[in-house]
Amino acid sequence: MSTLIKNGRVIDPASGTDHVADVLVAGGQIAQVGTGIAAPQGAEIFDATGLVVAPGFIDMHVHLREPGFEHAETIESGSRAAAAGGFTSVCCMPNTKPVNDSATVTSYIVERARRLAVVNVFPIGAITKGSAGEELAAIGNMKAAGAVAISDDGMPVMNARVMRRAMEFARSYDLPVIQHCEDLNLSAGGDMHEGVKSVRWGLRGIPAASEDVMVARDLLLAELTGARYHVAHISTRRSVAMVGEARSKAITVTCEATPHHFTLADENMEPYDSNYKMKPPLRSGCDRGAVVDGIAAGTVTAIATDHAPHAGSEKMQEFERCPFGIIGLETALALALEELVQPGRISLARMIELFTTGPESVMRLGRGRLAPGAPGDVTVFSTDLEWAYDVNLSFSRSRNSPFDGRKFRGGPVATMVNGEFVWRR
Ligand SMILES: [Zn+2]
Ligand SMILES: [Zn+2]
User: Fold this and answer.
1) Which ligand has the minimum distance to the alpha carbon of residue 154?
2) Confidence of residue 1 (pLDDT cuts 50, 70, 90)
3) Catalytic residue (one of 287, 306, 384, 390)
4) Which ligand is nearest to the Cα of residue 65, counting in written order?
5) CA of 184 to the centre of ligand 1 (A)
6) Do both 188 and 259 map to the same domain?
7) Residue 315 scores a pLDDT above 90
């Protein structure tokens, strides 16, 4: 079975390609990229005139909630939301129940994904047993079972000695260490960013310093150990500056930004609306601007959604009781176009890098390019399609998005995984 994607603007940052061309996909792989490719007999033709054809997008940070929280999301439903967002590969965080801290859980996720997911799913193993921050998890066994990185996301590794050992182990296994940067003593049960708004609304604040302190500590440990260190969901001006400086000193550090952190600040929050409650919290306008600057300057190397589904009943409680996190797979590309590309902050090719080669360089999945022989993962999107996001039509099992009803210009049109279209608008 083969498919010829005809006449699209093919942008493949890995090879520097940016011109109108055809892409032939056969046997689950990219077979040929070029102009005037003749369709093989029986090939499906997809007319991509006026559309962008890119390598399949990679989201290196999602929560699929399975096993343990299937009422909020499953590997299958999360994968369908990913496909509808233009993602062909996702890396899922280990804060499931049980926590993915052993080869048994890793294998379970790999097996479920093989049977039920419509996109490629790569599990991230825990750093510590139960993500409790004390004893290292079975890192080597998880890697053998398919884990592509380690993280205790949802929780930071508070103990510096444990983090140092984790980095040493991860280095010997050649795995990246992804940290949820939050000093729990400083965030101290806070619900939103500490600032004018938190004071006005009488909510406990999470200071920017709770992130900055952890980033500073970990950069010292990354330098000490030589580990590949990655800051999840960077959100503050100082953290962006520290990561930028460390990268200039050749410390092996990377960081990702979420669409909500480069789009929204605390001043954009609807008061007491839990669809604006996440960790790290929406920061000040100055922090948001620094994240955008970090993306434009190349300090931030990946866009990741931190897709965090929560069932309606959990998000309907009063603000202080609600869990942290929002869904984000289906709005990420449109937000990146609107906030980064359309205002001229970055080029279209640079945006595609942030969704492909950027995360690929950290996770090393063997994906993120359109060259012949590469897996047949392709994201087709429009830069001018007008549409509105209706969260009630989401493929996710959860509805917790602050972007419900938002009108967009540009968005995903078709998603191909391993040579087969798994979603079309
Ligand atoms: Zn996190
Ligand atoms: Zn997360």
Assistant:
1) 1
2) confident
3) 306
4) 2
5) 12
6) yes
7) no
Nearest to 31 by CA among 19, 41, 23, 39: 23
> pLDDT for 190-242, tens place per residue?
999 999 999 999 999 999 999 999 999 999 999 999 999 999 999 999 999 99
Could you count the other beta carbons within 10 Å of the beta carbon of residue 257? 29
CA of 156 relative to ligand 1 center, distance in Å: 8
Q: Are residues 8 and 133 in the same domain?
A: no
Which residue range is the domain that position 297 belongs to?
56-363
Contact present, 153 and 61 (Cβ < 8 Å)? yes
Looking at the structure, do residues 399 and 355 belong to the same domain, yes or no?
Answer: no
pTM of the model: 0.98
Question: What H or E segment, with its residue span, contains residue 256?
Answer: strand 253-257
Q: Distance (Å, rounded) from C-alpha 81 to C-alpha 185?
A: 35
Distance CA 261, CA 259 (A): 6
| Average per-residue pLDDT for the chain | 97
- What pLDDT, on the 0 to 100 scale, is given for residue 317? 87
153 CA distance to ligand 1 middle (Å): 5
**Do residues 356 and 78 lie in contact, with contact meaning Cβ atoms separated by under 8 Å?**
no
Q: State percent of the chain over pLDDT 90.
A: 98
> Are 334 and 411 members of one domain?
no
Closest by alpha carbon to 350, among 408, 291, 302, 414?
302
Residue 273 is a catalytic residue: no
* Last residue in a domain, options 321, 341, 363: 363
Tell me: do 48 and 68 sit in the same domain: no
User: pLDDT tens digit string along 43-59?
Assistant: 999 999 999 999 999 99
Pairing of strands 29-34, 17-26: antiparallel
State the distance from the centre of ligand 1 to the C-alpha of 405, rounded, in angstroms: 26
Proximal ligand: closest to the CA of 280: 1
**Same domain assignment for residues 45 and 75:** no
Centre of ligand 2 from the C-alpha of residue 158, in Å? 16
Helices marked H in 85-173 — which ranges? 103-116, 139-145, 160-173
Pair (130, 278) in one structural domain: yes
Question: In total, how many domains does the chain have?
Answer: 2
Helices 285-297 and 237-248 pack at an angle, to 10 degrees, of 20
181 alpha carbon, closest ligand? 1
Distance from the CA of 126 to the center of ligand 2, in angstroms? Answer: 12
Helix or strand (DSSP H, E) at 409: strand 407-417
- d(CA 155, ligand 1 centre) in Å: 7
